[in-house]
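SAMPLE LOG
Freezer: B-3
Tube label: C17
Construct: single chain, 136 aa
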Amino acid sequence: MANEAVIIELLGDQGDVVRYTVADGAGIAKGTLMQLSSDPRTITATSADGDIFVGIAAEEKVASDGQTSLGVYTHGIFDIKDAGAGITLGNYAKVNGANLIAAADEAGAQAETEIVGQVLETAAASEVVAVLVRKP
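STRUCTURE (predicted):
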């Protein structure tokens, strides 16, 4: 995959890692934005607007390695790539594709589940920007 998030600073207890179930056949790069995809507590890489963001892969997952769980960072500051429209300093960002974010400023409130975090600097179109991620 491309555009994985890069750690700037882990907060809480070393990023407050939470473990989820993943498919054995999945190959996931460290830094991949992850979404809750099915029961029970199963995650996959983000792919589209509206995904339920849960965190950022804390380690690499090799396809078909027998591993069926993966830890994700839920608290930290990460460099993440804007999907193309830019985001203003202080706004909240949401998932907008595979390892991409966009401003969560559409008409009506965005579902909290889509929110990746608060942007800590202004992002021009397709720029990598620092984002404060904090999932409960």
